[in-house]
Write a structure and sequence with these properties.
about 475 residues, Growth Hormone, Chain: A, about 0% strand
């Protein structure tokens, strides 16, 4: 008797034009999530003045979002695989729009932080689920890599548009209007999703893992709090939660985090690279936003214009990275990405690029190139070779790694800056206090380079093939072998 459940769970291959439309709809969700973050960075000084917040307060407006997002991404991915990806995606759009509306009405810093958490609940249902939809729509490895390159290019669009849109809105209307931008885009994406995106789910639903979810949330929340507030008690709680996670998850039949994925060196490497790359991005944006406005005295709009070279390079190189990954594999873009992401902050750490506009812009350009190159290979590596039935979980791990990286980047860099310049940085001490922070960001770039080199060679690909076979993904193993021959 034919398996009608499996036939309903995985849709037939869509026509090419319909595939492109699905990709565009998924990219709309990434645009509002990424645009919200980049525009918010430019608005931090205005929000700090309006709400009377310190550096740690500004950290929490960013980290409350990324922390909740990171905690829930894997739950959202596995839930989407179980009950339906379109259903979860639609719910995420509604909740994200509601959270955006509440943020625009926040009367205090505490309320804003809470409403940012509501936003994050919706955001957790968007990016990993959208990537899962893309993975199940573009089943051919090279086409998938190109689609992921377009997906990464949207990050560049948000980086380019975010500072400009944010700066313009802050100066003309106020920082609250930044959250209004999300509403029409979310509404359009919602209507298009209901009309054009087919439902899909895993043939064998995964069971919920509430204990694993609780341990992940406890680990990330306590670690972030320990860094921002310098509290050793919460560092201990984070260590206990990590130990519990490593002990409990392998015993589960359907764990929240399938640790077998990490037997694949490329998958494990992609996770580490994502953490390092987005920690560098979060810290770099945080430092430069405060520097340009608080030290140089630029307006929000002019600060956005100053950072445009970085955003423009990301916009240009993200789709190029997707095509390069599809044609040659992830190694070359990863090595170039690590080089750029180390060289850019090195100009600030060793040569005081802040004091010279040519060096400042050179640092922005080089860092933007590196960041533009890094997204496609890590995303493609994270989902390649994994069973499509677990695409939501695999892509959620990659998305979680990004958010964890950004959370830790803002937390660590903000803590280093506050240690050197106080809770409200003084223009005279800011540059010196930022120097150690730039060395940390440079180290993150070097880690991208080293881990990329280690986990993209022949040995690493063999571990990925073995892992794909162990997970029952003969299709994934064959895709990896095809990718190996292409590169």
């Amino acid at each position: 008797m034919p398996d009608l459940t499996s036939r309903r769970a995985v849709p037939e291959r869509l026509p090419h034009r319909r595939q492109l439309l699905v990709l565009a709809i998924c990219c709309m969700s990434l645009l509002i999530v990424s645009l919200d973050n980049t525009a918010l960075n430019v608005a931090l000084p205005a929000m700090r003045r309006d709400l009377g917040a310190s550096v740690s307060g500004m950290q929490w407006t960013i980290d409350a979002y990324t922390l909740v997002l990171a905690s829930l991404l894997m739950l959202a991915g596995s839930t989407a695989d179980r009950i339906g990806r379109r259903k979860v995606f639609v719910t995420g759009l509604v909740v994200f729009a509601l959270g955006s509306l509440l943020c625009s009405l926040a009367p205090s810093l505490e309320a804003l932080v809470a409403f940012r958490a509501v936003q994050a609940v919706g955001g957790s249902m968007l990016n990993p689920v959208a990537m899962s939809i893309i993975t199940n729509t573009f089943t051919e490895p090279a086409a998938r890599a190109r689609a992921i390159g377009v997906w990464g290019g949207v990050v560049g669009v948000s980086m380019a548009a975010g500072p400009l849109v944010g700066g313009l809105l802050v100066e003309s209307v106020g920082w609250r209007s930044i959250f209004w931008v999300n509403l029409p885009v979310a509404l359009a994406a919602l209507l298009l999703t209901l009309r054009y995106v087919p439902e899909s789910r895993a043939p064998r639903p995964r069971r919920p893992d509430p204990v694993g979810q609780l341990l992940v949330a406890a680990l990330l929340a306590s670690l972030t709090y320990a860094i921002i507030e310098s509290d050793p008690l919460f560092a201990g709680i984070a260590a206990v939660a990590l130990a519990g996670l490593l002990r409990y998850e392998p015993r589960r039949r359907d764990p929240l985090i399938d640790l077998r994925f990490f037997r694949s060196a490329p998958f494990g490497g992609a996770t580490v690279i994502a953490v390092c790359a987005f920690a560098a991005l979060g810290g770099f944006l945080f430092l430069n936003t405060l520097y340009l406005q608080d030290v140089r005295g630029l307006s929000a709009l002019h600060a956005g214009l100053y950072m445009l070279p970085m955003a423009g390079m990301t916009l240009v190189f993200a789709p190029l990275s997707g095509r390069l990954t599809g044609a040659r594999g992830p190694r070359v873009p990863l090595l170039l990405a690590g080089t750029g992401m180390a060289a850019g902050p090195l100009l600030f750490a060793a040569f005081e690029a802040e004091t010279s506009d040519p060096l400042l812009f050179a640092g922005y350009v080089v860092f933007g190139i590196g960041f533009g190159l890094v997204n496609a290979p890590i995303t493609n590596t994270a989902v390649s070779g994994m069973p499509r039935a677990q695409a939501g979980v695999a892509s959620a791990v990659a998305s979680t790694s990004r958010q964890v990286g950004q959370t830790l980047g803002v937390a660590v860099i903000g803590a280093v800056l506050a240690a050197g310049a106080g809770s409200v940085p003084d223009p005279e001490t800011f540059v010196a206090a930022a120097r150690p922070a730039y060395w940390i960001i440079t180290g993150c770039g070097l880690a991208v380079l080293a881990v990329g080199a280690l986990t993209s060679g022949p040995w690493a690909r063999r571990t990925a093939e073995r892992t794909a076979r162990r997970l029952g993904s003969e299709e994934g193993a064959e895709g990896l072998r095809t990718g190996t021959r292409a590169s």
